[in-house]
Design a protein that fits this description.
Chain B: One of its GO terms (biological process) is protein transport. Chain B: One of its GO terms (molecular function) is transmembrane transporter activity. Chain B: Its main location: membrane. The complex is a heterodimer. Chain A is an alpha/beta fold. Helix content of chain A is 39%, strand content 14%. Chain A contains five helices and seven strands, in the order αβββββαβαααβ. Chain A has a five-stranded mixed sheet, with helices on one face. By secondary structure, chain B is an alpha/beta fold. Chain B has a domain at 64-152: 2-Layer Sandwich (Nucleotidyltransferase, domain 5). Chain B has helices at 2-5, 20-34, 73-79, 97-107, 128-140, and strands at residues 36-37, 50-51, 55-56, 63-69, 84-87, 90-92, 117-122, 145-149, 151-152. Chain B is elongated and about 90 Å long. Classes of the chains: A alpha/beta, B alpha/beta. At the A-B interface, helix 1, strand 1, strand 2, helix 3 and helix 4 of A face helix 2, strand 1, strand 2, strand 3 and strand 7 of B. Strand 2 (36-41) of chain A pairs antiparallel with strand 3 of chain B, so a sheet runs across the interface.
């Protein structure tokens, strides 16, 4: 018997059901991961062999109380003003040896130059983690802002951008080597010296 | 005459559902690409804080995760409402963190053992005492690279309740 119609049509009505089944499986067994955050290095546990004497004026002390109040360099400070204060401290350029510090006030009671400036962060045991992260974010932001500015001036590209490309897996090695050189140069201009002293217990202050 | 009889009066044609599978597949592929398999169930509340100066954790195989937060509602009666540390699948004390890191480190490939990062996924309502204990433990086992994992956003949102 000659066929009058073409191949018979396959009923695809259940295809949607199958696809839904797969979709629901993936919905329940997977999560959307957050995989970004503030990268920090903890201080090693062994104390350094030779104790370096650091001048008090080269230390920017940040204290977070248990109620979330902020004491920066001895003054009660709003969190929103912290970044500016930290930046002013970092590029104060007290001894005049830093030729790229733009807004250095050359205050003799503040830091000598960016390579000597240290920010020290202390918090109470009862400080909320959210507050702590905000402070960390602002301090890292102060460094990043300064580094971005210099990178923008020297390489016409922001520092954070270069860093992000550097850690990407897809970046070819040749580009990485070139980036690394630039990144180290900027890092040497504003080395990140953010120390975290041991947390004080609430009873001791 | 039969020519007219064929025409049915008021019946609506069936809606074609042929594109439904395509739409569902599209959703499916979206979920397949943006999610990863769960490796452990979260037993703690884990509302991460927000930060803007963040860096991406690029290599998955070099990360050890520690969760901290108040126990979930279903565990609250058993473990209380104070923030707890979750290592793998169980609640732990701060003193277990060191052993946990050493164990996880031993599981990794030799080349990776020195470049591991500890990702701290901490609920923003936890307090720093617990975190300091963890940090002390991490220092003791020389796992110095940490990442305070956060959502991307304005850090000042953390201060609101």
């Amino acid at each position: 018997m000659p066929r009058r119609a073409g191949a018979p049509e396959v009923n695809a009505g259940s295809m949607a059901d199958i696809a839904f089944l797969l979709l629901i499986f993936f919905l329940v067994t997977t999560t959307i991961e957050t995989d970004a955050g503030l990268d920090r290095m903890l201080p090693p546990i062994e104390p350094p062999e030779n104790d370096v004497v650091i001048k008090q004026k080269n230390i920017f002390q940040v204290n977070i109380s248990k109620s979330g109040q902020l004491l920066a360099d001895g003054n009660l400070t709003e969190l929103t003003a912290l970044r500016e204060k930290a930046m002013a401290f970092l590029e104060n350029n007290g001894d005049g040896s830093c030729n790229y510090c733009r807004e250095g006030k050359k205050d003799p009671t503040s830091s000598d130059n960016p390579t000597k400036a240290i920010i020290s962060l202390k918090n109470d045991r009862e400080t909320k983690y959210g507050t702590y992260i905000t402070v960390q974010n602002e301090l890292v932001g102060a460094y990043n802002d300064l580094r971005n500015r210099e990178a923008e001036r020297l390489f016409k590209r922001s520092f954070t951008d270069m860093e992000a490309e550097y850690i990407k897996q897809e970046t070819p090695p040749s580009v990485k080597a070139e980036l690394k050189e630039k990144i180290t140069r900027i890092q040497d201009m504003f080395p990140q010296k953010l120390s975290e002293a041991e947390t004080s217990s609430s009873s001791s202050n | 005459m039969s020519k007219f009889a064929k025409k049915k009066s008021g019946e609506l044609p069936a809606v074609s559902t042929a594109s439904l599978p395509d739409i569902v597949f599209m959703l499916l592929f979206f979920f397949m690409t943006v999610t990863v398999m769960k490796d452990n169930t979260l037993k703690v509340k884990n509302e991460l804080p927000q930060a803007s100066e963040i860096k991406k954790l690029e290599k998955k195989d070099r990360v050890i995760t520690i969760y901290v937060g108040a126990p979930d509602d279903q565990y609250a009666s058993q473990y209380g409402s104070e923030p707890k540390i979750q290592l793998n699948d169980k609640f732990s004390n701060a003193s277990d963190v060191g052993d946990f890191i050493l164990m996880e480190r031993a599981k990794k490939h030799q080349d990776l053992q020195n470049v591991l990062t500890t990702s701290l996924k901490v609920d923003r309502n936890a307090n720093m005492g617990l975190i300091s204990d963890i940090k002390q433990q991490l220092r003791e086992v020389n796992a110095l690279k940490v990442n305070y994992t956060t959502y991307e956003g304005d850090a000042f949102n953390n201060l609101k309740n």
